[in-house]
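Quick start: what a row looks like.
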Amino acid sequence: RIPSALDFTGLNLSIEIELNILTNFNLSIEHAKNYRAQYNQHYLDAIKDLKLDFDEPLRFYIMASTSTQVMQYVAKNIAHTLTNRGYEVFFDLRNGAEDQGCFQRILQFKPHVSISINHFNNRYLNDDCFNFVWFQDPMPIFYKDGEVFLRERDFVYSLLEEFDGPMIKKGVVPARQSFCVNTRDFKIHENIERKKKIVFVGSSYGNSVPQGKNIFDAIEYITLAFNNGENLNRAFIEVVADKFTLNEAYLLNALLQFVVRDTSVLWLCSHASEYEIEIYGHGWDVYESVRPFYKGALNYGDDIAEVYNGATYCFAPHQAYALQQRVLESAACGCIPIVYDCFDNKDDREYEEALEYFKTPQDLKDILFNDDIVSKDFTKLLDENS
């Protein structure tokens, strides 16, 4: 990891000496970066020149980052499935501080297939290597100027039809791929008592929103529309982008995501129904109204499955789609997902036999204060997304 700052606290150095140290420090950093670039280029060139033998057992390289929540576990599930099918898999979970070592390992592994989520990661791959890229989010690369680099053996998938337009404009024609549930870890446990409880699993997005007058005004505008039950669709995003001079991808990935998740959790915590409320994740303790229900963070896998097995409902609002990873995982545990109705028309809703939909605070209240026994059928939902 390259150092990023110096602290002179308590050293009583003159300004001249501090500046001299800083100058040499910054020069050393630049030298280190140059050396690293040379090492990386050596391995990148070697990877690019590889000739692969497809008579050998297939080797899969799968990259993920610890800075992501959903994506790293989706990638891990893919890696685990391939391993169970007898393939050799290099699951490369990066911390963000790696240098030439990771490229050296890729060169030694010589993958026949590379799998990535939300990033092409294809510029260093040799022509023989198959590369499968799955976009779960509308990424900035499709919204900014410049061409997208594609190889003959790059195969691209997107989560939603709504993501396809900007991709196609860049010459990328994706196939469809939804989320899938890992029923090895997420399943019904008959020994766990299911209580009259609603749980939310996921972090607050409040800390990820930058400061700025136009950002604040945009959030206020979006929140008002959300509270009023307006459709936060493509047309709405275009209006907000133009009105506040903001990038559409940033709006969809950041501001709308923040408003829909955090505001609806605040709605949930404001309804004093007979249902126990439990909120899990990071960052929720900043909200006074959420603190009485906040239970801290959970480890992915068995801990989350246990929580779902003990609850009637899983609260899972998302601004762009109903079918999420946590929706499938909670359903697999027999816990009914409550999802945000992000569709323009109710006729477009998916899997209504398995999901509960809400669009306004009153919709959510109606679900929580309904005295009827809830019955949902998860069969089709899980069969089509396993």
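That is the whole record. The radius of gyration is 24 Å. The chain has a mean pLDDT of 90.
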